[in-house]
Design brief:
By secondary structure, the chain is an alpha+beta fold. Helix content is about 65%, strand content about 10%. The protein has a six-stranded antiparallel β-sheet with strand order 3-2-1-6-5-4, sandwiched between helices. Helix 1 (about 10-65) runs antiparallel to helix 4. The chain is elongated.
Amino acid sequence: MVALDQKLGTKIVNILIVFFIVALAAISMTLYVSWQLEGAGAAINDAGSERMRSYRMAYLLSQFTHERTDKAALKSEVMQEIDQFEFTLRTLEKGNPARPLFLPKEPEVQAQMKRLRQGWLDRIKPLILQILNSDQPTGQSVLTGAYQPALQDFVGMVNDLVLMVERSNSRNTSLLRSFQIGLVVLALIGTIILISLFFVMVIRPVAKLRGGIQRMAAADFSVRLPVQSKDEFGALAEGFNQMADRLKNLYGTLEDRVQEKTRKLEDKNQELAMLYEIAAFLNKPASVEDLCTGVLKKLMGILAAQGGLVRLTAPNSDALYIIIHEGMSESFTHEEECLTLGQCLCGESARDGTPVSWNLSLQSPRQLLLRCQRDGFQSVSAIPIRSKKRVLGIFNLFYQEQHVLDSQEIQLLESIGQHLGIAIENQRLVLREREMAVSEERNLLAQELHDSIAQSLAFLNIQVQLLADSLRRGNATEAMEGLEQIREGVQESYDDVRELLVHFRTRVGNADLASAITSALEKFEGQTGIETTFDKSGGGPPLAPEYVIQLLHIIQEALSNVRKHAQATRVDVDLAQNEECRITVTDNGKGFVVGPKPGIDTDSHVGLKIMRERAHRIGAQLEVHSAPGEGTRISLTLARQPKGTA
């Protein structure tokens, strides 16, 4: 039997090799015996031919003794027969594997062959040669008479050799049949053995394995397979038993694992709810202090912290300042109101951008200030507040007991720190945008005051000096003319102030650009008495309010220039809204020379510079067309509809 510790493949290969060797040996023996039979048959044929050749030589010798025959021809023919006889005799002795031809190796056959060779050499061949060489008919007759009994004995020896070879062939034939019967028996027995072995080594283990799987499928986890070998089926049985143990253990602890998974899901849901709540809170408009306060209170309530604070970095500084705090003593907040980056745990967290959760009772390689420990806290956590990979500050959670946050809690707090950092950065951007808007509006107001009121006041100052000079000289007529000019200058300054007030009180609200232009033209016509017309075409989408405000200010500035300088009686305003917004303001006034030629420079003209700046702010293009005596046309083109329009 094959060893039990061999693999199944090795067992099958070894069994097949054994059967192959046995079958190969039996077939080889059969082939060998068949070869022996074929060689012996050829030897029988050649031995029979020797017998026939002996009789032929006797016949030729009898013809040689007659006087009327051609003795030379007969002698030559006899000599050829002798040569052929000896060649066949040598072939029988040595054999010829190419035919094949050989005598059996049996001792009696080999001895008979030697006797046959000796009888030929000692008696038959010498007698034949003597007869052929004798010249006397009498001597030839005597020799021929002696040759006949010798020939009979020699042919008897050939017959004995043939019989011996035939008997050997008969034995080999019986042996060949035995081998063939053995092959049939071997095939039958081998098939039965192979079927039995495969049943024992393959079919039975597979059936046991299938039965075990069926029992396990029916929730019978107590099933175990016997490990009877160390082959593949033994490994399968061991693996099946391990799987059964594992399934039994899993089935037994299924309820506990379900509870554990449920608890983890509840924790995840709680984390998501906290993130959603904090994200919703951070999306509401509020100041930085209110944002930090709201987030800190929520975290302290959820994580059961007894204290907390938020520190933010100052711009272009290495200092951390406390913005808000909860549950901290006044002495602590006073001492740590300003903390340097890299100082204590909090400073290191802000400098390196890494979260820290530490038990203050343990030894630490860091240089700790331990002020929080003096306030009765045993654990502290510092979480960076980030925005776009930039640390804006940190927030701290303090515990009066030993409470070190795990990796999951730290990851959650880091996410909250990122949300808070983005909200703080957005709030700062909103404040900067408001400051820039106020600054730009103040610059425009200053420019308009400089280009209108300041110039008027400068003119009035000159007129006052001229009036004083006229009064000193006692020229009443000149003084009255100066007073009239001063009165006109004051009235113009008053009108400018009212116009500026109208400009900066303008609010579009929900009105569109056409309605705002109509309202502005009605006010202008009522104040100046100049006739106005308004033509609207197209139907593009409405602009955002901030664009409408800037366009309306430009139109009001154009109308102001008409009132001050054009001496016009009619103003036409056209509005075309398609893929682009185009506004044209045309008057029939006196006009002026555009450019640096003598006349009025457009860049120094009152209001034109401000109009260009407003147009540039919203990405519009302003063009001025005018000539003396031909009026003025101002074209304003907003090439693309800005994003954010309704």
